[in-house]
Specification:
By secondary structure, the chain is mostly helical. It contains 9 helices and no strands.
């Protein structure tokens, strides 16, 4: 037997042996276990942290224990936690960008809860321009961004502490300005559309009279 024949024979014996092992057939290249394995979809459920986990940035590893604890904690924190960023020189552009990245898909560009992803939820995301939200202390808003709400997930592992405070500031200023601009544009478009519709109706009436 030639050397090439010996190699083919050895490969054939190896494959036969593999097929004879328990689960050997499933290990061949056409197996789809890796593709078909169970997976947790985004925001489907929380993934528990290992017990030995250590926070990398000095805290915030442990969150509230259940919804009731979350509601009580964010009210309590709202009375004690204040914005630590300097009062001037805030990076407004970065604040707007972080809102766009992390919040706009659910809450919408103007904060009305009409983002492309938010429209799929029932109930829909909170309207961030409402007095219920705007009257909350900064610390309470920060805590909600950090640990989430009744439906909203927490973002303490996705957004740095500084950027969370920037988002809080954006909710107070830039977002309200953006909401006002969008409302004005919508009103102007509606008025323009209404005028065109009236003109079209008038022209149609004249043609009918003729």
């Amino acid at each position: 037997m030639t050397s090439a024949g010996k190699v083919f024979a050895a490969v054939g014996l190896f494959v036969c042996g593999l097929l004879g092992l328990p689960g050997g057939l499933q290990a061949l290249p056409w197996n789809d276990d890796m593709k078909d394995q169970p997976s947790v979809k985004t925001q489907e459920e929380a993934v528990a942290l290992p017990q030995a986990s250590v926070p990398s940035n000095g805290g915030e590893l442990d969150g509230p224990d259940g919804i009731q604890d979350l509601v009580r904690a964010r009210i309590r924190v709202g009375e004690t936690l204040s914005d630590p960023l300097p009062s001037d020189g805030a990076d407004e552009a970065r604040a707007a960008l972080k809102y766009e990245y992390h919040c706009q898909s659910c809450h919408g560009a103007g904060g009305a809860g009409d983002g492309s992803v938010g429209l799929k939820y029932t109930p829909k995301p909170m309207d961030l321009t409402l007095p219920y939200v705007q009257n909350q202390p900064d610390g309470q808003l920060y805590y909600t961004i950090t640990h989430g709400g009744v439906v909203m997930p927490g973002y303490r592992f996705a957004i740095s502490q500084q950027d969370r405070w920037l988002i809080v500031r954006y909710l107070r200023g830039g977002l309200l300005e953006q909401a006002a601009r969008l409302a004005a544009e919508a009103a102007a478009a509606q008025a323009s559309g209404g005028g065109e519709s009236e003109a079209a109706d008038s022209q149609a009436g004249m043609q009918a009279a003729q």
